[in-house]
Amino acid sequence: MGELLKVERLQIAFRGDQGETISVEDVSFAIQPGETMAIVGESGCGKSVTSLAIMGLLGASGSIKRGYISFLDTNLTAASEQQLRKMRGSQVSMIFQEPMTSLNPVMPIGRQIEEALRLHLKSSRKEARQSAIDMLRKVGIPRPETIAKAYPHMLSGGMRQRVMIAIALICQPKLLIADEPTTALDVTIQAQIIELMQTLQAENGTAILLVTHDLGVVAAMADHVAVMYAGQIVEAADVYTLFRSPRHPYTQGLMNSIPRLDAISGGRAPAIPGQVPSLHEMPTGCRFHPRCPYAEASCRELQPELMETGDRHRVRCWLTETSEADQIAVHRDTR
Ligand code: SF4
Ligand code: MG
């Protein structure tokens, strides 16, 4: 199967008061049609920036310095603003954490769905109106004919996120980028929105790029996962491999910080000590070395590449060159 999206050795820089900063460095991954791929990491790790770059929405201060993004064999890095605009909403659409910022506050929500449709598919007003109501019903909005006339502020957060999903999916895009789609919602609504995205994905074969810090959402939705740290992918694998046998010390730390049932009586799960480095002061060598319990002298000097260790399993750590990573994994399990 061919790749739907391919990101290759991407480097993204932002211009600011302190000069240019590199916020994404050497990021490569691919998404197959219909697949859900998650990018997971702490805030500021570059995961949202990567997804905005795919949409061509880095803004005036951001730019792709190196590498490329291709979607359906079109090089997006070389595409004109007009080509990108045509692609956004029809082939690739995006939903964000807070729908209020992307919904128009003074337009009834039915009209907003119609506009998306008319813009890209040139439907008639009547067809668009009917499709908007059908779509609202599909995303689980009760009494869609009435709700179509409502304004965004009249709806709850969960309902607004359903409307965003309706807008994002109305043109049947091949890729949906969802940046923290459930973070602002309470747990019950989160589960409903995840289920909704999965149902619609199964119906339409839409691929999803999920951007999140929430490993619970990753476990529920993703087929493949890339873990980002300080602007780089440090590990990527299928979801089972990543949760069962993470090999990068940072991924292992993330997994250890998930509260487990057996840990509840024992108090809080351990967090990773130390802090995410600032973009202005990246550590030399391996960017995780100041926080890594296994760091050796060489880790401070030499930056590891993302190394292939198995089928679509890649790890950016010197330990994977030896068998020590396996010993760490065992050590972690028996702790
Ligand atoms: Fe830790 Fe060294 Fe691996 Fe970096 S390369 S994660 S410092 S062991
Ligand atoms: Mg973000």
Automatic annotation (TrEMBL):
Its main location: membrane. Residues 5-255 form the ABC transporter domain. GO terms for biological process: peptide transport. The keyword Disulfide bond does not apply. It comes from the Bacteria. InterPro entries: AAA+_ATPase, ABC_Ni/Peptide_Import, ABC_transporter-like_ATP-bd, ABC_transporter-like_CS, Oligopep_ABC_C, P-loop_NTPase. GO terms for molecular function: ATP binding; ATP hydrolysis activity. GO terms for cellular component: plasma membrane. Pfam families: ABC_tran, oligo_HPY. It is a peripheral membrane protein. It is found in: Cell membrane. Keywords: ATP-binding, Cell membrane, Membrane, Nucleotide-binding, Transport. Transmembrane segments: none annotated. Belongs to the ABC transporter superfamily. This is ABC transporter ATP-binding protein.
